[in-house]
Amino acid sequence: MRQVSKSLVVIVDADAIVAQAFPKDSNHERAMEISNRLNALEARVIYPVTAILEAVTVLQARLNSGATAYGVAEVFSNPEIQTSEVNQKTYIKALSYFNVSTSKKNTMFDCVIMAIAKENNATAIFSFDKLYRKRGFKLASEL
């Protein structure tokens, strides 16, 4: 098992999971470059279970790629991959990022990512969504 940096913590959003798993995704090459960079930096990478579920759903339903969806779901059963569950504390924190005037592009899934990032004092969020930067988070592409 490789040594993991204690200082760099990155939370991964569903769009980054999809981009890595789906070669036809417009962000695939960038996602692979960022992933390789995070490995080189020995970052501690955390995958929220909600992001995994969202990514698997997108791959299966919208991109009609059942085999890829299954493969992604199976990968995250590996105990060496750090996942993060959503408990009531995380959910309540996520609600603080969500409100009635929230744009349809700012989903509750995104709010959970931000809550988990805060809980883990994350250095960055691995996503292509500019929302996170607007909310004061650094993106993994900036590392």
CATH class of one domain: Alpha Beta
Count the E strands: 4
Report helical residue fraction: 40-55%
Show unreliable segments: none
Strand content: 5-15%
| Overall body shape | globular
Q: Trace the largest sheet across and list its strands.
A: 3-2-1-4
Q: What value does the average pLDDT take?
A: 93
CATH topology of one domain: Rossmann fold
Largest sheet report: 4 strands, parallel
Supply Rg.
14 Å
Structural class: alpha/beta
Helix count? 7
Question: Which key terms come to mind for this protein?
Answer:
globular; Rossmann fold; alpha/beta; RNA endonuclease activity; 7 helices; PIN-like_dom_sf
Describe this structure in words.
GO terms for molecular function: RNA endonuclease activity. InterPro entries: PIN-like_dom_sf, PIN_dom, VapC20-like. This is PIN domain-containing protein. Pfam families: PIN. This protein has a domain of 88 residues: Rossmann fold, CATH 3.40.50. The protein has seven helices and four strands, in the order E-H-H-E-H-H-E-H-H-E-H. Helix 1 crosses helix 3 and helix 5 crosses helix 6. The longest helix has 14 residues. It is globular, with a radius of gyration of 14 Å. It starts with 8 loop residues before the first strand and ends in a 9-residue tail after the last helix.
